[in-house]
Amino acid sequence: xxxTAKCGGYGSLRAECAREPCMANGMCTLLDPSASxxxxxxxxxxxxxxxxxxFFFCAGTFALCASYxxxxxxxxxxxxxxxxxxxxxxxxxxxxxxxxxxxxxxKKRTVVVDPELLKELESQH
Length: 125
Known about the structure:
Layout: E1 11-13, H1 15-19, H2 38-42, E2 43-45, H3 47-80, H4 98-105, H5 115-124
Antiparallel strand pairs: 1-2
């Protein structure tokens, strides 16, 4: 007698039924006495696998689109001068005032004070 075990749709055979195809013809009650229909017992649902396949495909597509969007946004910010090539923000400083420019141009004076003269001046006051 030849036995075959098949599953339709998104179902797959249990390992026991794949090794021994006659399990689908009523022998499954030897392993699981509570099984009433051996054909449905041998077939396990793969709908979870299909769900995860579709889910990861959609998540990957979304991640690809999001990364492209962020890349284009970075390119637009580069062209607009908002960020540098490495992603750091460009800091805009205000131009210096006239007083700050004058202080920067003024020469620094180096003064050497004679200690004797300093003591004499301090003693007078």
